[in-house]
Amino acid sequence: MLGDSITESDIDKVIDILRDKLGVNSDRALAMELGLSHSGISMSKKKGTLPYTSIVATCKQKKISLDEVFGIDVDQTSDNSSTEEKPTKSEDASRNSAEDALAAIALVEQIIDDLLYSKNLDAERELLIRKKLTPMLIEKTFEHNFNEVMVKTIAEGALFMAF
Fold first, then answer.
1. Measuring CA to CA, which residue among 58, 63, 65 is closest to residue 30?
2. Distance from the first to the final alpha carbon of the chain
3. Sign of the CA dihedral running 125, 130, 135, 138
């Protein structure tokens, strides 16, 4: 149904399918179901567009296939259905990522503590510096493969520039 351009009849078909799937009868009820203002659907029709963000969000929430809504024929006979969730990472890899993140945070906090201890700053100034440095240093920790010397050198340079 949907190709390079969308026609008025395509918009009407999508709206009719959405009404049917969501169990509503009017444009106003459909707009409210999609989280739009009461005139959202009629405005979309006038503009010749669809509120794609709202449609996708509602279909995801209500577990409605976007293929059905937009009239796309999909071969459902294959074992690898597009609606099945496929794991993107192994459980071990995601656990390592969390452990790496915690290790990076600990390393950065240790480095900042060491560098700021001798500065004798007031609390507000120290919190401001920590707030600004921490995200950058965590990123640099991963960039330099947890090399403490490199991260500490970067932190010292940033502190030198701050004073």
1. 58
2. 62
3. positive
pLDDT tens digits for 37-90? 888 888 888 888 888 888 888 888 888 888 888 877 766 555 555 555 555 555
DSSP annotation string for 35-88: T--TTHHHHHHHHT---HHHHHHHHHHHT--HHHHTT------SSS-TTS---S
- Each domain of the chain, given as residue ranges in start order, spans 8-69, 91-162
pTM: 0.43
d(CA 54, CA 44): 12
Distance (Å, whole) CA 109 – CA 161: 19
Is the torsion defined by CA of 127, 132, 137, 138 positive or negative?
Answer: positive
Q: What's the whole-number average pLDDT of the chain?
A: 82
> Residue 151 in contact with residue 136, Cβ under 8 Å?
no
